[in-house]
Amino acid sequence: MKKYLLTLSLASALILPAASQEQWTLQQCIDYALTHNISLAQSALSVEQAQVDVYQAKGAMLPSLSFATNQSVSWRPWSQQYVNVADGTMTQSSSEVNYNGTYGLQAQWTIWNGGRNRQNVKRAETAVQQKELDTDASALNIEEQIARAYVQILYLAEAVKVNEQILQSTIAERDRAAEMVEVGTMARADLAQMEAQVSQGQYNVTSAQTQLASAKLNLKQLLQIVDQENFDVADPNISDDQVLTLLPSVADVYSIALEQRPEIASDRLGIELADMDISLAKRERYPTVSMSAGINSSNTSGSDFNFGKQLKTNLSNSAGLTVSVPIFDNRQSKSDLLKAKLSKLSSELSLANTQTELYSDIESIWLDATNAQQQYTYAVANVKSMQESYDLVSEQFNVGLKDIVALNTGRDNLTQAQQQLLQAKYTALLGQALLRFYQGQPIAL
């Protein structure tokens, strides 16, 4: 299991600003999260707590030894004594204080209890393994969330650039339209429409920048970093060949994921734990054999012997063997057995559900990536065609051969084609990364 447990010094650093860093790569984001994520550290603590249960289960197999002492003082303020004298018996009253002390050393050892102690040790050790797997599963989930957030930022960053380019082009066209109005080759109504297009372009840029800022905030929250206003991610410079990388089949990814994903292994261990609980419930009906031994002594203030002499003369030793056979336990053992069997059925259903969800996730990712790759090929050609068409319309508009409607239509078509290209590109990249990730490879673009 990876070590996610935070030290005290590291935990205290969580409240401090993150180290200054201009651009974060995907791997740096993942490494930072695995080191600083609080929920992951809490999950790692549960592993340590489960390990304590192992020590406790092993300790139950050892003998116990205890020492006990009792010191008491009694006071009889009107104690009466009878004294024989020559002419009879005389009663004498006095205040009397007595002191008594007892001392005992006791040992207890369960020799055999149907093998429950050994089974408890195995169960505790298996529970530790399950907690470790749950922690690893949490780490993988965090990595996947970070990858999705990271790719979203890359997509929105390019969307901002596209909108800024369209805005610059629109401004240039507006300025050209203003010149045409001055020379009388364009109506002022058309110029007003161009002004509206510039305003719309500015709104689109601002909206895209807001979405980008929100995506960066989401990633910062996943990383749990604060006070880093200049947070940004590095651009991996993706080529067309990377976008169109051949995808593995769903069956291949799923077969590997079944063997490597920690959530599957955790559910399988859950079934093993249920089997152990069934075994423990059955062993409740077995006899218990235990051995005990003790050493005891006492002293009192009314004796003619000193303290050491009294301890010696009052010393007693004992040893015993106890066999306890359960006959009727108010259906406790039978109820425990039924609960354990039902728990196993629940664990089996949990495993089946996890396997189904895993296959569904992989299939969904593969389908999205496959469709995105197909759309990307067409989107590249479409952007090229729309760019050429828009350039031509823009040239014709500048010489008065096209009106404002044709220009706006060409610009809108180009913008839509560029957005479709970006969406297909980053959907394909994310799908490729996640499919490799589900095969046990490090997540990377």
Task: Name some characteristics of this structure.
445 residues; 4-stranded antiparallel sheet; alpha+beta; 11 helices
Structural overview:
The chain contains eleven helices and four strands. By secondary structure, the chain is of the alpha+beta class. The protein has helices at 8-13, 26-36, 38-59, 116-182, 188-223, 240-243, 250-260, 262-283, 307-313, 332-398, 404-438, and strands at residues 64-85, 88-112, 288-300, 316-324. The longest helix has 67 residues, at 116-182. The protein starts with 7 loop residues before the first helix and ends in a 7-residue tail after the last helix. A hairpin with a 2-residue loop joins strand 1 and strand 2 (88-112). The protein is 65% helix and 16% strand.
In short:
By secondary structure, the chain is of the alpha+beta class.
Name the average pLDDT: 89
H/E series: HHHEEHHHHHEHEHH
Strand content: 15-25%
- What ranges have pLDDT less than 50 throughout 5 or more consecutive residues? 6-19
Strand order across the largest sheet? 1-2-3-4
Query: Count of helical segments?
Result: 11
Work out the radius of gyration. Answer: 40 Å
Fold blueprint:
Elements: H1 8-13, H2 26-36, H3 38-59, E1 64-85, E2 88-112, H4 116-182, H5 188-223, H6 240-243, H7 250-260, H8 262-283, E3 288-300, H9 307-313, E4 316-324, H10 332-398, H11 404-438
Antiparallel strand pairs: 1-2, 2-3, 3-4
Helix pairs in contact: 2-4, 3-4, 4-5, 4-8, 4-11, 7-10, 8-10, 10-11
